[in-house]
Amino acid sequence: MALGSILCLGTAAAQAQEFTRQDTLRGSITPERAWWDLSFYHLDIAVNPQDSSISGSNTIRYKVLEPNQQRMQVDLQPPMRISRVTQQGKDVPVQQDGNAWFVQLREPQQAGTEGEIKVYYSGKPQVSENPPWSGGITWARDANGKPWVANSNQGDGASLWWPCKDHMYDEPDSMRISVRAPKGLMDVSNGQLKGVQEHADGSKTYHWYVANPINNYGVNLSIGDYAHYAETYKGEKGELALNFFPLRYNLDKAKKQWAQTHQMLEAFEHWFGPYPFYEDGFKLIEVPYLGMEHQSAVTYGNGYQNGYRGRDLSGTGWGLKFDFIIIHEAGHEWFANNITYKDVADMWIHESFTNYSESLFLDYHYGTQAANEYVIGLRNIIQNDIPIIGVYNVNQEGSGDMYPKGSNMLHNLRQIVNNDEKWRSILRGLNKDFYHQTVTTQQIESYLSQHIGRDLTPVFDQYLRDVRIPRLEYRVNGKTLQYRWANTVDTFNMPVKVTVNGEAQWLEPTTTWQELKLKKKKPKLEVDPNFYVTAQNVAAA
Ligand SMILES: [Zn+2]
């Protein structure tokens, strides 16, 4: 998701939260979810902009992990309604409990077997009040008055508009998406277009196929009067199909602005490794909201201009060198779509790395100084209101600081590694070793500690689970420099680079005073500005 949500998240999330049974049903791996493993979805729907409704079915195929289970949880949020569920062509009972629907299967399921149900549903899905930051469907019209429909539902959940296992830990291995769009309009979803079926009334069904695991919120619905053009990118894994869908009257603008896709792929394949979905191609699709990282189908609404709606969030000028939505949302193909959080409380895995990808894009094309200035500039929007990690098992994300503060934490790590080739190999290693997986923060933290070669637990605890910014306190006594970390968790330690009288020096401060012998009295000490810390001379007056 695009930064900007911090403004609403910051205040909303800072309020004390009380969680309900519905939050638990939505946010935890309930027993009715745990026994089965998703293998395939076929979402098959008709979308009607005339009355803002969606109707159709989702076929859910699953592998049985635990024996003798018969009750299955499927999620669909009112006002959408499940009308019937069938298994092997016969109706099975379904019982609604708020957003959760419990399906009673025909017989106890045998471990190791595959099963399938078909869920029929319809209704007028929630309309998004502030896309993409509030979930729902956007029913817009383009400048010619033609219907223009799009979904955005990270956090609130895909079950706002289609029935699914709406928890991020489990993804189908592949998915088919069939969308019937009114006459004269096209649907663009994820993966490759496998066929278009024409109906007597002039409407058409677009059949898309996703050959890779896909997360729920990444499933895309875009209906509009689209133009289409195609290009090819010769990347690390061969030829990658690029398909572009601007509104018909924006074709010329798109061809110019969206050329940045090539620069994006060049920079990100360098830093993160091959684009993770070659089989599904890469698409940009114009939508009536700012943008979202829908897998292999990135949605775009940045107005064909550089920056974030024409602005530079870093205040350094570097943010105007690229189109924020192309770079940020496509960065999520590696961190969100390839490596996906199991619980939205760990959303930093998506947003911190992707926010940092903006800096790495600059690094690749404009050099490390530009990249450093950009990530440092983003500190002006850090709030330090609540921790970055949210509440587990209740679908609750943490502070919007997961964007700029999370990327500044990663920038700290880059300084600690102090070897950009090694840093790059770690970023590529993450994408290789967690390829197409859903993960926990513990997995990512352990991986970074292991590959950086130091226990970084205190660093993660400080920046992800606490709101205080470490302060390097120091005092000079003759030719002795004393220093320590303050304003931190008890066990905090982190190396930091300083200059003493212009000479670079690494310190290994902890929360207790340490000493460094100096060559001369009254040294001038400066902390390397790439570290997101503060410093204070605490010498007694
Ligand atoms: Zn994002």
UniProtKB/TrEMBL annotation:
This is Peptidase M1-like protein. Zn(2+) binds at H328, H332, E351. Residues 261-463 form the Peptidase M1 membrane alanine aminopeptidase domain. It comes from Pontibacter mucosus. SUPFAM superfamilies: Leukotriene A4 hydrolase N-terminal domain, Metalloproteases ('zincins'), catalytic domain. It comes from the Bacteria. GO terms for molecular function: metallopeptidase activity; zinc ion binding. Coiled coil: none annotated. Pfam families: Peptidase_M1. Keywords: Metal-binding, Zinc. Its cofactor is Zn(2+). InterPro entries: Aminopeptidase_N-like_N_sf (IPR042097), M1_LTA4H (IPR034015), Peptidase_M1_dom (IPR014782), Peptidase_M4/M1_CTD_sf (IPR027268). The active site is at E329, Y403. The keyword Zinc applies. Binds 1 zinc ion per subunit.
